Amino acid sequence: MEPAYAHLEGPVHVGEAVWYETSRQLSVRGEGLKLPWRVTECFALLVEARGGIVSRQTLEEHIWGKAIIDESSLAKCVAALRKALDPAPHGGSYIETVSRTGYRLTVPVAAEGATVEPIPPVVARPDVPARRRWAYLLGIGAVAVIIGAGFLFSKRIESRREAERLTAEALVLVRRSNPADGAKAVTLFQQAVDLRPDLALPYAGLAEASARYGKYTFESASVLARKSLELDPNCSECQAIWGYILMTREWRWNEAGKLLQRSVSGGAPDPQYRIWYAMWLAVHGRFAEALRQTDAAIAAKPTFAPAFTTRAMVHLLAGNYEQTLGDSERAISLHADSQPGYYWMGRAHAMLGQDVNVVIDRAYEMAAWGSWRTETRNEFSARYEALLAERGRRALAHAWIEEVGSGAPREVNRYNRAMWFAWAGEYEAVLEELEAAIASRPYWLMLAPVDPAFVPLRNNPRFRAVLSKLRKD
Fold it and tell me: Does the reported pTM lie above 0.85?
């Protein structure tokens, strides 16, 4: 049976730690700690149980909602808590693992200065003077106010939990690199904001969605990220997302690098932050360091497909095309609709001169991106394989370029158009596309300095002028 939870207003003493429920702040032996929000929420639920056993299921549902998680996720959360709290005053751990059941605190939990006394019953007597009757009435009114305040406080906690559950679910969806999942994530983030407009992370999530999918303008991504940090300057997840936006959309490399490096330092960082930092390192040509970050992300979460697609990207930029293929295949085996997996596979096949495979890879990439049916994907592949066989690579590249030849699709695909022109050997057109891309900021433009597709242009003055515009600091 689950314990009866009691929400406590801070400060609350938990052994030698002090917990502030409202601000979600924790200090241990006089030192304030900044913990990831999932670790913080795990601690909050254990405190509310006041020494009672909290089941694994309750913790997982509270922290991750309906998101599919690795079996070790909760154990890592508890391990991070123990590292922050232990040793307990009695010499052991603050948190006891109850075999096959869950976890509980091993130290007393007490609100500061709180001594709960039973409220004596009020006995009405006919001879009570009017003044005393008013006192009784005022007392009853005060009790009603307290009960009402308690109810409102409880509803506020419930709304926070629901907003955090929606945000956790949305963060999983937004990072699948699929527009359909991205749209669902935006809806969930907006619901979380509506529930609790004072929470920072839903705004940061909307910022990430904007940077990835252009749901809002790219400028809105920056506005939303700043809003999240105004609400909570200590939100580590918000800082990491801001670093990601500074890298992918703002091109403020120094500031982005500091934020992303900070997000992976110490403790058990989220694998997502490791792959963002790996991207930053790769853009700067620091491929060995980037691979160490992707390897660490994979070690922490072996089923995390984006870690494999990021490693595939790093290998491609480093010229390791066979390794790119291997990592892309691994990502696709973990997530069949991994659009980045097919993208990097296609890039590797292009660099290896395996043109038929490039067509097949792009068919699968487009299917994953647009949620195509199998028949549509096969028709796309057959049509362009025939064009390749009849008229060659140049005609195929131009056909794909014409597909996104005007309006918003052209602006979003400027970098791909440049890559296809390079594949066709038309480097004057490559320069024109890259110069135009500075204004529309397609996602992968940040890779231009190290992309092997543009090696023949490395010493071209126009190309170097493009690279100079990619630096904002």
Answer: no
